[in-house]
Amino acid sequence: MFKTITPLFLLLLPLFAQAQRITFSDDEISFFQERKNTYQRWLDQTGIGKVLQMDQLEMTKNNTSVGLWLTFKTADPDSAIGMWNQLRRDFSAASGRTMSDELFLKFIQFMEIPAAQGNVQIYLRQSDGTLNRCFFIFLYDDDGVTQTDEKLLDCKAKSFDVTIERLAISNVTKGNTGTITKPLSSEEVFNRIGRYAHARYDKNLDGRYPKVEGEKISGNLFTFFVEDLSREVLTTEQKSIWCRTMEALGIQCNDITRERLEFDLRYNPDTGQLSCELTGKFGSGVYRPREKGWMDMEPDFESDLKKYTTLLGDAIKKYLEKP
Length: 323
Known about the structure:
- By secondary structure, the protein is α+β, with helices and mostly antiparallel strands.
- It has 7 helices and 13 strands.
- The longest helix has 21 residues, at 26-46.
- The chain starts with a helix and ends with a helix.
């Protein structure tokens, strides 16, 4: 009987372990906050603190996972990449261990948590304090082995950052009318942007019908995309001679390069800061590309996308600040 049960138990053991994840108490979370200082001292003692610094602790998955945020002591992406690569080489040569292993293992050691319930996230903050979303390093445990996922400027998007001014509204108190300023909530900002996007992109373009799709609001994040556009970013694109000939014969024809725009907007209602990552793609003018058939506008049309993103940011700011 035991010969039958034992292998089955061993097969189910990982499921039992996963189901028994610790839910950290308020006292334990306070302990983690205190231990941040210990981790920072270790960073400074090893010399890593010249490059990386403590940023914050993040509790996720219903307080069953602890995430440690580190940030670079620079806002320049190229400098950060050089510092990170040099740091890894120097650390490996001096200790014989990998930087990723040491950063992660010291974290779970100081926090006194199971490896499966912790992670280290390394980010690059821009000069305005916001995160560079094209740059991250993620350290975590997978079956007892430290794994590293990283994206170092591997991003095909352009961005804009604007500050939305508080709206002036009338306020009546005890018969007196005055004016107060009111910050826009995330819901208000995203609903307005949605209306602006539909008004700008939903239209008939010579037999093509682009429209805003995939709208999703999650807290302070709003995402959507538009495809089948033309001459939106790539304003100098023209129809082919063949297509113009067909039109001269009275036959509708449109083979102008198609465009797809993907929007990732984040808004901070406390500061009024609106950030947008805009990814531009293009495809055949003859047929509509499948999802994986779109090609990135960068590097061929980088300047076009950069110019468009800047103008779009100004236009959205102006629209949002209208009474």
